[in-house]
Amino acid sequence: MSFFGKPDAPPQPQPSPSPSPRPPERIASSSPAATPTAATATTVIGSRVKVVGDLSGDEDILVNGRLEGKIRVERKVVVSAGAEVEGDVQAKSVIIGGRVHGQVMASERAELLPTGRVQGNVHAPRIVMAEGAQIQGRVVMPSDAATRTLSAPRVEEPAKRPITPPRTEVAPPKPDEAGRHPVSPPPPGTGG
């Protein structure tokens, strides 16, 4: 069909398929959304995956399965509903919809969803807790947590603490009514 009086372009011949299959060529894209970067990268632990060991890095972590070990990242950690972490979690932001058995330390924000369960202390300057979420431990909200790295609280065992007896104070003797101190009689045989 001609458009504005211009003739149609002749059909182009189709190349014949080559006898040996070649992998498709990758087309480079300059779109930032197409290329994962450190700003958008997320490590995902699948729902049927169990990881034993510690995780650390500078990416977001999404736990859908089970992790037995510590998580220490500079960004965000999300523990999905049905997921479980057996160890401490330390990150900039922590969102818990599953179970965490350990300390939760967030330098900016911690959020517990309605299905979230924590057995351990939660340290964060801002804590959001939905109705139904549970914490079996202490909630610590330090005011300067956003400017310093949080560390697990030091727990001292009772056996290592020094035992100090209770201190008793003795009142000084009261002077008698005349303001004199009582005088003891001289020992016998001194003649005095």
Structure described in brief:
The chain is mainly beta.
Q: Can you put this structure into words, describing what you see?
A:
Helix content is 0%, strand content 31%. It is mainly β and 192 residues long. The protein has a domain at 42-148. The strands form 2 sheets. Strands 1, 3, 4, 6, 7, 9, 11, 13, 14 and 16 form a 10-stranded parallel beta sheet that branches. Mean pLDDT is 75; it is low at 20-38.
Essential attributes:
rod-shaped; single chain; ten-stranded parallel sheet; mainly beta; 192 residues; six-stranded parallel sheet
Detail the poorly predicted runs. 20-38
Secondary structure tally, helices: 0
> Could you say which structural class the secondary elements and strand pairing correspond to?
mainly beta
Distance between the termini: 149 Å
Instruction: Give the DSSP E fraction (strand runs of 2 or more residues).
Output: 25-35%
- Round the Cα radius of gyration to an integer and report it: 37 Å
N-to-C series of helices and strands: EEEEEEEEEEEEEEEE
- Helicity, as a percent range: under 10%
Overall 3D geometry?
rod-shaped
How many strand segments? 16
SSE topology sketch:
Blueprint: E1 42-45, E2 50-52, E3 55-57, E4 60-63, E5 66-68, E6 71-73, E7 76-79, E8 84-86, E9 89-96, E10 99-101, E11 104-112, E12 117-119, E13 122-123, E14 127-129, E15 134-136, E16 139-140
Parallel strand pairs: 1-4, 2-5, 3-6, 4-7, 5-8, 6-9, 7-9, 8-10, 9-11, 10-12, 11-13, 11-14, 12-15, 13-16
